[in-house]
Amino acid sequence: MNRPFLPFALPEIGEEEIAEVVDSLRSGWVTTGPKAKRFEADFADYLGGEVQALAVNSATSGLHLALEALGIKAGDEVIVPTYTFTATAEVVRYLGAHPVFVDIDPATYNIDPAAVEAAITDKTRAIMVVHFAGLACDMQRIIAIAKQHDLKIVEDAAHAFPSRYQDKLIGTLDTDVTVFSFYANKTMTTAEGGMLVSRHPAIIERCKIMRLHGISRDAFDRYQSKTPAWYYEVIEPGFKYNMPDISAAIGLHQLKKINRFHEKRCLMAARYNAGLANLPLALPPMPDNINHHAWHLYPIRLTDNATVSRDEFIIKMAEQQIGCSVHFIPLHRQPVWRDNYQLQSSSFPHADSLFQNVVSIPLYTIMTDNDQQYVIETIHALL
Ligand SMILES: *Cc1c(COP(=O)(O)O)cnc(C)c1O
């Protein structure tokens, strides 16, 4: 086989990103500084300017900061979907609180609002939603449930930049905090990094302090300020979650390209939808408007009449030089959550059945039309 291996995911890094990183390296200011500040301002602008944004060194850090700022503490319960990456649940444990896992809606693969409602107890303090693959959750119902039971909402928007719920961008809804990820394989990258967004100034203030050791002003403010540069006050045992300028340098230019990236992803999703119709597989859940989906992932489900199992499908695709992946191994199957919370697959029938036959096929901006055509043809030949 002459064709080079087509990886499951690759970032698109241009000369602008490279030059900006080099500029940071030459400037002497490599950690959090002017570029991180500009990246935050640009990101908030992109979301329409009614939110504030804090750059962090991962979405996981951002989710931890969010729950801490909302006052989640030991013994509290936070509702999370089982169909997510472990980061969503682990941050709840960082605070000594307990994740309460719920099933998904099989029509969307997102957290099922009815399951959320059924899981509420007098210890529940917050709901974490995950916009799986980049498709927004049923936020109208989630927000209504949260208001009715006086619960906070944190959006794990690791897949959802940019996604829209109805006509509003994720990050601008009536929730408490939204956190985006810029990990290498996400819809834009800073190598490692994330952005925490909120419309509530008090939450932003708390997250900002806890992001850097519980210090009341960050290093760059000190550098700029008229008061003595060496003076600071530590008011909490905080964390070390700031984004360095070397990462923000990448993010500044990725953000400028995000609309082009998104158009390409939508175009590719439409091509897969057409090219993979009429096969023994289910196409991904679709919003009313294809452009409202971020298309971070393109998860297909092999149906019962498929001639290969999911596992065989992935092996055979790899033999044809195509990388695939599985999103996700649900958390009720991961030893730490399964064993500590005595979780059983039968309690999560929709997530468990999705896991058995789902596969994510490659979709990223530097794939060529020819690459995508090859993926489509290979799937036809396999099925
Ligand atoms: C990638 C991912 C995260 C973690 O993002 P990091 O930036 O790597 O911390 C969290 N939640 C979901 C659903 C993810 O896919």
UniProtKB/TrEMBL annotation:
Which Pfam families did the record assign? Answer: DegT_DnrJ_EryC1
Extract the CDD domains matched here: AHBA_syn
Q: Active-site residues?
A: K186
Instruction: Report keywords, A-Z.
Output: Aminotransferase, Pyridoxal phosphate, Transferase
Tell me which residues bear N6-(pyridoxal phosphate)lysine.
K186
One Gene Ontology biological process = polysaccharide biosynthetic process
* GO MF term set: pyridoxal phosphate binding; transaminase activity
Entry similarity comment: Belongs to the DegT/DnrJ/EryC1 family.
This protein's name = DegT/DnrJ/EryC1/StrS family aminotransferase
The protein's organism comes out as Paralysiella testudinis
